[in-house]
Amino acid sequence: MKLNRKLAATLLTAGLAATSTALTAPSASAVSMHGCSYPRVCLYDGSYQNGSIFSWYQDTTYQAIIGGGNRADAVVNTRNDDSVWLIDQGASPDAYICIPRNTAVNLGDYAHPNGGTWANDADAIKIWGDPDDGKCSSTWQVQQGRVKDGWRP
Question: Which pLDDT value is given to residue 80?
Answer without folding.
Answer: 95
